Amino acid sequence: MEKVYKSTEDNMKKVMAALAHEFNSLRTGRASAALFDSIKIDYYGQKTPLNQVATISVPEARLVVIQPWDKSILSEIEKTIQKSELSVNPNNDGKVIRINIPPLTEERRKELVKVAKNKAEQMRVSVRNIRRDANEEYKQLQKESDLSEDHAKRGMDEIQKLTDRYIEEINKLLEEKEKEILEV
Fold first, then answer.
1. pLDDT tens, residue by residue, 10-28
2. CA–centroid distance for 184 within its chain
3. Mean pLDDT, the chain, as a whole number?
4. CA distances (Å), 136 to each of 71, 151, 165, in order?
5. Would you state the pLDDT for residue 184?
6. Which of 79, 85, 127, 166 is the most exposed place for a label (fewest CB within 10 A)?
């Protein structure tokens, strides 16, 4: 019974980590190094995460500075960022890339809130699917006579409490992200 609960909780933690990662890549009006987490640079024939070939810093609220360790990939970084979905314009001065993060329009903010809500809903569905799988596991254990009906019921109640807790955490994360996106 403990094993089912533990694996269910681990899976729900992974869902929360995935949601946090998704939210980090959503652009807000503020500069953040996390915006570039999904950017991969073609570095000696390998797709390499940007943060593994350059230092990404945020010296001001609306400015990101990317300083590659190997100056020869400066133009490659610039091209990749231009092609990305970030809608930013990198400025290459031959040593570093500076990116001014423009303030978001009201329309774009509303679109981003919709995207955030959609991602949160996908993660809530994932948590519910994990709950369903755990409940099936308890029912199977009960059917095989490895677990009494009371123990199975108690296990499913614990899984429901766990599910409620993670759904609440998703809602809190969404609320914080909405506030961050709508902030002018």
1. 999 999 999 988 888 776 7
2. 22
3. 89
4. 55, 14, 20
5. 62
6. 85
